[in-house]
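anyone seen this seq b4? input:
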Amino acid sequence: MNRTLFSLLLGASLALASTAYAQRQTPRSHDAPAAPTQRFDFDNDEVEGHMAGAPGEDITSTAKVKHSSLIKLRQEFDRELVASAERL
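predicted toks r here
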């Protein structure tokens, strides 16, 4: 019952939501005047401010350094394995 009701509501909401996208947009009138351009003049005024950001300084660094692997492979592993098997 709950699953059927949920499916019905989900289907109805998807169907109604898609009709808004299917409607044609009304074309804009080419005869409408353009919005006036605003001009701000700060010639005689002293404008002060600061840059918004985190306080502190930028830290620059050099290129990444390639480190050697911390895992060392044992060169004598095969001989140790054979010796271990012979002891059994």
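The longest helix spans residues 2-22. The helical segments are 2-22, 77-87. kinda curious what u guys think
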